[in-house]
Amino acid sequence: FCIFFFFQAEDGIRDPLWSRGLGDVYKRQVSTQSTWDYKDMRAVVRYIDTKKGAALADIPIPKVIPEHVLIKVMASPINPADELYIMGFHGEVTKEPACCGMEAAGSVLEIGAGVPKEFLNRKIVFFKLLKETPEQCGTWAKYALVHYQNCFIVDDSIKYEDVCGMLINPLTCFGMVDLVRKKKQSAIVHTAAASALGKVLLGMCLKEKIDIVCIVRKKEHVALLKSLGAVYVLDETDPNFVNDLTAVCAKVNAHICFDCVGGDLTDKIVHALPFKSTIYSYGALGGSIKTCLLYTSDAADEGLGVDLGGRR
Description:
Elements: E1 4-6, E2 40-46, E3 54-60, E4 68-77, H1 80-87, E5 98-99, E6 103-111, E7 123-127, E8 143-147, E9 151-153, H2 160-163, H3 168-182, E10 187-190, H4 196-208, E11 211-216, H5 219-227, E12 232-235, H6 241-252, E13 256-259, H7 263-272, E14 278-281, H8 291-296, E15 300-303
Parallel strand pairs: 10-11, 10-13, 11-12, 13-14, 14-15
Antiparallel strand pairs: 1-4, 2-3, 2-5, 4-6, 4-8, 6-7, 7-9
Helix pairs in contact: 3-4, 6-7
């Protein structure tokens, strides 16, 4: 399931460009500049000292720069990676406070030089870079500033909450499938396979004819994924899980595992994978990875990144 942040505009604002209040009937002007003079906005932030956790704070509204767009954030999901970011395990923080949130949906209010004019006043979905830059701002705020190439225009008829989480998971899955092809492999193992990302990856693997061994932790998830076309679905709570996983991995010749759980589950997978396998870790929902076991089983553990035209 997804939890959404909603940032509703102030009903009292009636500026034709900046007003986004419900029931607003004022036509928005087509302009590349704003006359709005507010300086601060409320945002969810984190600090370099991760012991402080996340907090609400007033931070400066980012100023538009070339090739960037200023966005009124309307809805933003909470992903497991967001929790890792707050804890300091995901992404880089070079300044504080750093605004949290990695993807969202909103409306473009202002564009910088070099941005195509069709972005102005349009409904978009967007994501921020994992590497902090002085310009960009996270998505858990009233407003965000990102490079226009990180934005995708969507139809005005689509609800913000329906599309705010449509980028990070599919892009991650595209990266996974691309990596499998580059490694000349035809089968993978995937943990937390009943997650939103897991369902996307399942669909891509079915389309690309890649055998996927799905690992879940609930009986109902086994039935769910099989109804979506999965052939190999294993419940990690089953007493014969390791033996069954070993047999399936050998059958489909799976030498790659995408793991977002870690902890004891990674321990079990290491013992089940064939010799010379690789585990790509992109999360730690269940705890840290036991690297000594990875070493003795000759399985490698690597981080997973998606190349987006030189931006990661």
